[in-house]
Design brief:
39% helix; alpha+beta; 60s Ribosomal Protein L30, Chain: A; Translation, Eukaryotic Peptide Chain Release Factor Subunit 1, Chain A; 5-stranded mixed beta sheet; globular
Length: 382
């Protein structure tokens, strides 16, 4: 059975290296319930027919290029274990199936490079991140995407409790105040929790919590975040959020967290809460990209005509490219025969050029309007 890959930066790099040769690209939604899923191979077979049309003028090896697609149609086991959508890429030297968890329209393209715009549009939802679930005396770390979140086995250097972090320096728990350093109100996350309960002894217990959080921040940053280079979502009660953020030096910690006791969340609830945080972060990033274009327009460091952007890209001057999501995805199957004269293909070539030169690509979703009347807009480096 063909392996279904997840979309990562490595996947994108692999696809970028496949340019300047005949490439077949197919995007299709997948029915996952019986009996509807019996239609999936038939839909792929129809898309293969569209590829055949595009190949008649471009490749004498059409049957060789299409053979893996036909094999996939006949692979019953494959169709029984599919995600909600697929991106399938084929050529003389490659055949790759990427699983997608957001809907796509049926698209079949023959071109001199893989068709990546629908994939780039889904890139934000496949972004990997880590989650730090923190209480006054416990630590858990999860890693994943909006679709899958799994607990990470922490290195021994990362303390998972106050006793492990502080050892003999931990204040004994037989002193005045709440036994774990909180009042009853504090258990609910009330804002004044640190002022309730036990006077001077309580202050020592609160100090233990701060010292524990310092140890956690240092260890997580050194042994987790700097290794994986992923953004970090903090899940903790409001008071613990405030204390941890006041002492944290992690450049990976996101400004917004989940202000709930992680012990009260199921795995699904934890994943959804983190997804909501990242979704708001993506919206803010899109707004920031629009603001960046507005500032560049005032400085005359922008371009909105495709020909101007192409010239700037050839000169390595495009720092940020805003491109609208695939307009044809709304109307069904697309087959491209001549990328040199097709505006969609020109946009795709532009995306590839900007990525290779280290520029940033932002695919503007259909529910948002471009900041210009054109399908692409660029912020120039100079």
């Amino acid at each position: 059975m063909v392996e279904i890959q997840t979309f990562t930066r490595q996947t994108l790099d692999t696809l970028l290296a496949l340019a300047d040769r005949t490439n077949l690209s197919v995007y299709m939604p997948v029915q996952q319930t019986f009996p509807e899923r019996a239609q999936n191979p038939i839909r792929l077979k129809n898309l293969i027919k569209d590829l055949e049309v595009g190949l008649t003028q471009q490749s004498p090896e059409a049957q060789t290029l299409l053979a893996p697609f036909h094999d996939l149609v006949a692979d019953t086991e494959f169709w029984n274990n599919c995600p909600p959508a697929l991106a399938i890429f084929g050529g003389a030297e490659h055949f790759m199936v990427v699983g997608l968890h957001q809907p796509v329209q049926e698209i079949a393209m023959v071109n001199r490079h893989p068709y990546l715009r629908p994939l780039l549009r889904q890139a934000p939802t496949t972004e990997r991140y880590q989650v730090l679930c923190l209480t006054r005396d416990s630590v858990q770390v999860f890693e994943g995407t909006a679709q899958v979140l799994q607990e990470v086995q922490l290195p021994q250097a990362v303390p998972t409790s106050q006793a492990q972090a502080l050892g003999e320096e931990l204040t004994p728990r037989n002193q005045q105040g709440h036994p774990d350093g909180f009042s009853g109100a504090g258990e609910r996350g009330d804002p004044m929790m640190h002022e309730s309960g036990g006077g001077g002894k309580q202050d020592e217990v609160n100090l233990d919590r701060e010292r524990f959080f310092r140890a956690v921040d240092k260890a997580i940053t050194e042994h987790c975040s700097r290794v994986c280079q992923l953004p970090l979502v903090l899940v903790a009660l409001p008071e613990n959020q405030a204390v941890f953020r006041s002492i944290s030096h992690s450049p990976f910690l996101l400004a917004e967290g989940v202000r709930i006791d992680p012990a009260t969340l199921s795995s699904a609830q934890l994943a959804q809460a983190c997804t909501d945080v990242l979704s708001r972060r993506r919206d803010e990033a899109l707004n920031a990209a629009f603001d960046r274009f507005g500032v560049a327009a005032g400085q005359r460091l922008c371009a909105s005509h495709l020909a101007d952007i192409e010239r700037a890209a050839q000169e390595g001057r495009v720092g940020l490219l805003l491109v609208e999501a695939d307009a044809h995805a709304e109307v069904g199957t697309q087959v491209v025969h001549d990328h040199a004269v097709n505006e969609d293909a020109a946009l795709d070539e532009l995306i590839l050029a900007v990525i290779r030169q280290g520029g940033e690509i932002v695919v503007v979703p259909t529910e948002r309007s471009m900041p210009t009347d054109s399908r692409a807009a660029a912020v120039l480096r100079y």
